[in-house]
Amino acid sequence: MPAPRRTALLTAALLAATALTGAVGTPAYAASCVSAVDNDFDGDGVRDLAVGDPFTATGGRVIVTHSRTGAATVIDQSTAGVPGTGVNGDFFGFALASYDRNLDGCDDLVVGGPGENVGDKTKTGSVWVIPGSPTGLNTAASFTLTQDTAGFPGANENNDLFGYSVAAGNFGSQRFLAIGAPGETLGTGTSNAGVVVYQRGSTVTALTQNTAGVPGTGELGDRFGETLSATPLHVAVGVPGEDAATGQVQVFRHQLTDGKPTFVQTLRQDTDGVTGAGEPGDRFGGQLSAIPFRPAGGSGGTLVAISVTGEDVRSNTVTDAGLVHTIYIGPDGSFRQLAEYSQDTAGVEGDAGSDDQFGRTVQLANTGTGADGTPATTTLTVGARGAENPDPRLGALQVFRLSGAPGDGDLWIAPGTHGLPANAIGGNTRIGSSRDYLYVEGHLADGVGAAVHGLRWRDLLAGQSPAARTWPVPGTSVLVWAIS
Fold it and tell me: How far apart are CA 82 and CA 139, in angstroms?
């Protein structure tokens, strides 16, 4: 398996006020799950937290904290009921998602482990589903999904990397799960062409660039499905290796055509209406974030943020500076670009530099109370790597409001600012968000041990900088990976 790219999907999270290190008192469990809140594994009406730590010597783990009690549980392949045996390189926890798969009112945790060996196949990858219950995640009921699962398309093969990306959610009264396997081979000489397996109700199907109705051809190194993001209307699939890593994103509706999600749009910098020109090495679609969104005067659709970390600016003299596009996709599949964000954009704080890789992580958030984000309630957070700081090991974040031009009131978040410790943001930092918080993975203030730092949106957007709330991740001295 090649060195894993840091592309794990980050979904909304809400952290507890209690520290992550242990329970307070005796948990009071509900008789049944009654929650309509996302990421609520015990059905008590409060979002919980899952943090992936996939690079441990024992194959990776996930730390789950129940927000009401503060109780933390570590789940790995040695946990009773969790299938498999963890070994270094499994990357259990590389990608996370949650949804109420069995419709019992408690969310179920989805864990991707793209490095898992299955049978005699190496790095074929696996996905674990751990059901929620009134007493928390029920590991005894855990099960795995692979391409050899009954009814699943394809077959386990070496280096498929099944579970490299995951996305899950609701489509009407049904629940859907999408799983990316960017290492999938589609024929002779097409390693790393990629596939996405889509499951909803009794439908289980595969999407590739060889699927009827999907433009393009699955080719060597396309990595279709390296990134995934989804809303109740659409599924966005990143294909960052397409055309010598020029990259593209393909968008599907959940409504089925011939038993498969319906293709609606290909997005790339050579698409009419998308600024810029596609060039080898741009990696358009290397990071994705999508939320339900209603533009001013428009109908509810999907807003997707798409990174182009390899973008060169200033007539290609500043290499790999990076940029991000925000694109609105209507319910009919039409689209329009809302903005282009880079540090070379007028009014945006900072200065574009070579190897900044602006867009190394992207996260859209709806900070309002409505189901759809609006220009007034939506923020875009973009991460850039270490070139943004004197210390090359550190990175920075930039927050944009969608209610104005990119340079109208953007917020620069660097280590040691906005109440964060001086070493809080690494060059590959993952982020998450909820309506209330922006979550940043990083180190504790003493530099020893990992933590998740929470910055309250209402403080950030008001220009205030109280101390960040910090939740240590127990038993580790390395940076964490995915937040759900």
Answer: 6
Query: Based on C-alpha coordinates, what's the Rg of the chain?
Result: 21
Q: Does residue 401 contact residue 407 with C-beta atoms inside 8 Å?
A: no
Calpha distance 438→362 (Å, rounded): 12
Gap between the Cα atoms of 333 and 418, Å rounded: 39
Q: Is the dihedral of CA 268, 270, 276, 280 positive or negative?
A: positive
Query: Other C-beta atoms within 10 Å of 399: how many?
Result: 21
CB 106, CB 40: distance < 8 Å: yes
Written as six digits, the tokens of 7 are 């592309």
3-state secondary structure of 19: coil
Question: For residues 294, 296, 299 and 302, what is the CA-based torsion angle, rounded to 10 degrees?
Answer: -30
The model's pLDDT over 124-161, given as tens digits with 9 standing for 90+, comes to: 999 999 999 998 999 999 999 999 999 999 999 999 99
* Distance from C-alpha of 332 to C-alpha of 156, rounded to nearest angstrom: 36
Burial class (CB in 10 A: 0-12, 13-18, 19+), 57: exposed
Tell me how far the alpha carbon of residue 386 is from its chain's centroid. 21
Question: Span 61-86, mean pLDDT?
Answer: 90
Question: What is the sign of the dihedral through the CA atoms of 169, 165, 143 and 82?
Answer: negative
Calpha distance 54→285 (Å, rounded): 23
DSSP H or E stretch at residue 245:
helix 242-245
Tokens of 437: 């918080």
Q: Give the DSSP letter of residue 469.
A: E
Cβ(462)–Cβ(40) below 8 Å: no
Which tokens hold the place of 223? 């990595």
* DSSP assignment string, 38-104: TT-SSSSSS--EEEEETTSTTS-EEEEE-TTT--EEEE-TTSTT--S---TT--TTSEEEEE-TT-S
**pLDDT tens per residue, range 191-215:** 999 999 999 999 999 999 999 999 9
